[in-house]
């Protein structure tokens, strides 16, 4: 079934014929395949038979980054609700110090792209979940309403966040202004820059994958990178040389901002992510 969808899509939209197709790892959004054309050219094909993963929005985000930034991302050849065809990029998820420094330079440059407010010109995705991005002048308001409370209600609605913890998130949300203090100006962020969404080859970053873009305090990107140890000291040192990291990030705001991805992971997976959410909530309880 998937092979037929990929073959028909390649013929219809690229005018090429398919030689072979095989599953690839990953696929939080749809099913992921490596497709090979008759001339041997490899492509990546994502298939969502029900159209619930909004592959057209992933195509939009990749095109946005490719056209408006210097962040390396795969070229999109076709994007619709059910099929995404894009460039196959060589690389691994193992990073030398040299590659980490390159990643820092790329993300620091991305974070130098500003906007008049926090949010984005349209809603995007985090995994396959809608990510609301209404333009908002105030970062604390944006983070409270469209990240922290939004993710908490999503996890609660999925039956994976207890009502007591939803209330604790609400109480914390009321205190954000005291904890965030003065945020950084709006910056374009990749939004999902963990190890599995970055490829490196020969000491350089070859691609960032699966973006979840919007304009934010860029510290939220650094927080998520540190959450899963996607990059280490070489990354942080180089990033700080280019864009100094304000006092209080490592002490306070890193954990605060990581509530968003942890709540999103609780929505998808539950389990140990709920425990991580609860530990951060306990830390910030008065």
List keywords for this structure.
286 residues; alpha+beta; Phosphorylase Kinase, domain 1; Aminoglycoside 3'-phosphotransferase, Chain: A, domain 2; five-stranded antiparallel beta sheet; two-stranded antiparallel ribbon; 10 helices; 45% helix; globular; Kinase-like_dom_sf; Ribulosamine/erythrulosamine 3-kinase potentially involved in protein deglycation; transferase; kinase activity; Fructo-/Ketosamine-3-kinase
- Biggest beta-sheet profile: 5 strands, antiparallel
User: What is the CATH C level class of the largest domain, in words?
Assistant: Alpha Beta
**How do the strands line up in the largest sheet?**
1-2-3-5-4
CATH fold type of the largest domain = Aminoglycoside 3'-phosphotransferase, Chain: A, domain 2
- How many DSSP-defined strands? 11
CATH superfamily of the largest domain: Aminoglycoside phosphotransferase (APH), C-terminal lobe
The number of domains: 2
Number of separate helices: 10
Structural class by helix and strand composition: alpha+beta
CA radius of gyration is 19 Å
Gross morphology is globular
Strand content: 15-25%
CATH architecture of the largest domain: Alpha-Beta Complex
Report how far apart the termini are: 55 Å
Helical amount among residues, as a percent range? 40-55%
- Give average pLDDT, whole number: 95
Q: Uncertain segments of ≥5 residues (pLDDT<50)?
A: none
**What are the secondary-structure elements, in order, as H or E?**
HEEEHEEHEEHHHEEEEHHHH
């Amino acid at each position: 079934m998937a092979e037929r969808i990929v073959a028909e899509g390649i013929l219809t939209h690229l005018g090429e014929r398919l030689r072979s197709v095989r599953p690839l790892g990953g696929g939080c959004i749809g099913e992921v395949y490596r497709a090979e054309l008759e001339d041997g050219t490899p492509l990546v094909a994502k298939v969502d038979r029900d159209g619930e993963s909004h592959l057209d929005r992933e195509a939009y985000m990749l095109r946005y980054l490719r056209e408006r930034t210097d962040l390396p991302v795969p070229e999109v050849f076709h994007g619709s609700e059910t099929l995404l065809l894009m460039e196959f990029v060589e690389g691994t998820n193992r990073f030398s110090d040299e590659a980490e420094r390159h990643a820092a330079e790329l993300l620091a440059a991305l974070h130098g792209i500003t906007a008049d407010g926090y949010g984005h010109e349209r809603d995007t995705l985090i995994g396959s979940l809608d990510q609301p991005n209404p333009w908002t002048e105030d970062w604390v308001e944006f983070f409270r309403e469209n990240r922290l409370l939004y993710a908490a209600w999503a996890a609660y609605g999925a039956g994976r966040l207890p009502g007591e913890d939803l209330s604790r998130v609400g109480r914390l949300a009321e205190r954000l202004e005291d904890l965030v203090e003065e945020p950084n100006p709006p910056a374009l962020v990749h939004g999902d820059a963990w190890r599995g969404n970055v490829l490196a080859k020969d000491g350089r970053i070859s691609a960032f994958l699966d973006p979840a873009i919007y304009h934010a305090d860029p510290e939220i990107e650094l927080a998520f990178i540190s959450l899963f140890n996607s990059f280490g000291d070489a990354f942080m040192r180089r990033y700080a040389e280019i864009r100094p990291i304000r006092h209080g990030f490592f002490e306070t705001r890193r954990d605060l901002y990581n509530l968003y991805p942890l709540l999103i992971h609780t929505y998808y997976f539950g389990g140990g992510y709920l425990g991580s959410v609860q530990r951060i909530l306990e830390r910030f309880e008065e």
